[in-house]
Specification:
Serine Threonine Protein Phosphatase 5, Tetratricopeptide repeat, single chain, two-stranded antiparallel ribbon
């Protein structure tokens, strides 16, 4: 279905994100013109709506095309069910997984495994104007949480090798997120890449200091100490062995 130029597609995408409720007119204007909306903004939105109605209902008489894309006061709404929008279906599944996790339900792991395949699907990839929409950002945040939860389960099961790529990608996307960096340290530690783990800690500490003026928090420090413990234990064992040789 040809939904027209980028701004017109962005309008349709925004309406789908709110469907079946109406999208606030202020959100429409802020999405289509992030910096400085023109005085002709309302007329332009109306023109886009007319074109979308024609695309959505080519077999309908012009007077009936407003049934799918309705006028609601000074704004508009798509008359479709939430189950018809992939983002809405994903968010419902995320909420279900989150509830199982909070309740420590034994079904949590299976439910998470069932939805994790959708955790890296791009949202509104071909509509750059929607990139900073609060609803798109909310979906991306939920996708990241699913990856974090899945990685935590694999690490706890001693299978960090299965999620190295996922965890590394999330850490790169969130360089100032201490949980993400600590998780990557844990993965590297488990698969035997201790020097890479130390590099992650040093880089995170430097960026926290340079950008935010902060020291590492408890979780990042604990992850780093977990790297030092085996080194210290090895050093103590070496000292003990040398002492034994000398006494012999």
């Amino acid at each position: 279905m040809d939904l027209g130029p980028p701004a017109q597609r962005a309008l349709f995408g925004l309406l789908a994100l709110y469907a079946p409720a109406a999208a606030p007119y202020e959100s429409i204007v802020a999405t289509l013109w992030p910096d400085d909306p023109p005085r002709s903004a309302r007329a332009t939105v109306q023109k886009y709506v007319q074109r979308l109605r024609a695309a959505l209902g080519p077999e309908c008489p012009p007077r009936q095309r407003g049934h799918v894309l309705r006028t609601c006061g000074d704004t508009y709404a798509l008359s479709i069910g939430r189950e018809q929008v992939d983002v809405s279906r994903f968010r419902a599944r995320f909420a279900h997984v989150a509830a199982l996790r909070a309740a420590r339900d034994p079904e949590y792991e299976a439910a998470l495994a069932d939805v994790i395949d959708h955790a890296d699907e791009p949202v509104a990839l071909d509509v750059p104007l929607l990139g900073e929409s609060p609803r798109v950002l909310a979906v991306k945040a939920e996708q990241a949480k699913l990856v974090d939860w899945y990685a935590d389960l694999r690490i706890a099961a001693g299978r960090a090798d299965e999620v190295v790529g996922l965890v590394r990608e999330q850490a790169a996307l969130r360089p100032l997120d201490e949980d993400s960096q600590a998780r990557l340290i844990a993965v590297y530690r488990q698969i035997g890449c201790r020097s890479a783990a130390v590099d992650v800690y040093l880089s995170a500490r430097r960026q926290l200091s340079d950008i935010l003026g902060l020291d590492p928090g408890p979780e990042l420090e604990d992850a780093y100490r977990s790297l030092l413990a085996p080194m210290r234990a090895g050093a103590m064992n070496g000292d003990h062995a040398r002492a034994s040789v000398r006494s012999a």
